[in-house]
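Q: Predict the bound structure with adenosine-5'-triphosphate.
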Amino acid sequence: MEITLEARAKINLTLDVLGRLPDGYHEVEMVMQTVELHDTIILRPQNQGIGIVCQHPLVPTGEDNLVYRCARALQQATGTGQGVHIEIQKRIPVAAGLAGGSSNGAAVLQGLNELWNLGLTQQELMEIGFSLGADIPFCMMGGTALAKGKGEVLTPLRGIKGLPIILVKPPVGVSTAEVYRGFRQDKVVRRPDTKSMINALASGNIEYVARNLANVLETVTLSMHPEIALIKDELMAMGAKGALMSGSGPTVFALTDTLEEGFRMAKALEHRGEVFVTRTC
Ligand code: ATP
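A: Predicted complex:
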């Protein structure tokens, strides 16, 4: 048996930092949205051990790969002696704010539950996932959701499916930890109105969604990589309905009415880095 999985990227329609939790972590409130852009992951059974192949130069193939840690955690939680060979075909840009690693981890946890016939519930898988990455539970759930706490307290939301999205990833990698370290509440310029975003999504009004896009981490990453502001400006000048940095960046996403418009903008921005046209799902 061989299992092929689609591990989808996410964008943040909003990202707010509410404060600090007793353990020092940041308490967040985010509206998360899955997009069609995905990595393909193929699981093949092997007698023992965990093997990973991935051609992307920035993705480790040993114990540092998040999918390795997910597979290992599943072995430990269940005591299974089964092994797996994992092939990752990377399409999602790495260290980009698109939860590439987390989406891979989420897919592998769900896939191995099947391949190894473990019978764990979604809740149990999410708990194991959360111990390895705060975005993993959302990646398992998919769609549109409000994420609170460290990102693991999830409420599914009504979203807008099929909305064209342009992604532009400038050629710089960003460390999520470093961006959070640089965050200062008193430096926030624009805070999301999370309730308004939820209402906007429920009403299906794209203009209203676009107006409510906001991410408090944007100013932090922008100060390190000013090209993020240029990309946003260029997208808006070309007629995007709204543009925002996703997660801790540096990827910028923009909303448009049609895929054709998306392809036109993508073509004009190719010199800025990796560019994709995708859709919400
Ligand atoms: P997030 O939005 O969750 O912060 P990200 O998109 O910013 O994620 P990732 O693409 O997950 O960042 O990569 C962060 C780091 O994790 C990379 O530098 C990479 O070396 C490492 N990594 C480990 N496993 C993976 C994986 N399966 N896919 C991509 N990166 C991985």
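A: The mean pLDDT is 97.
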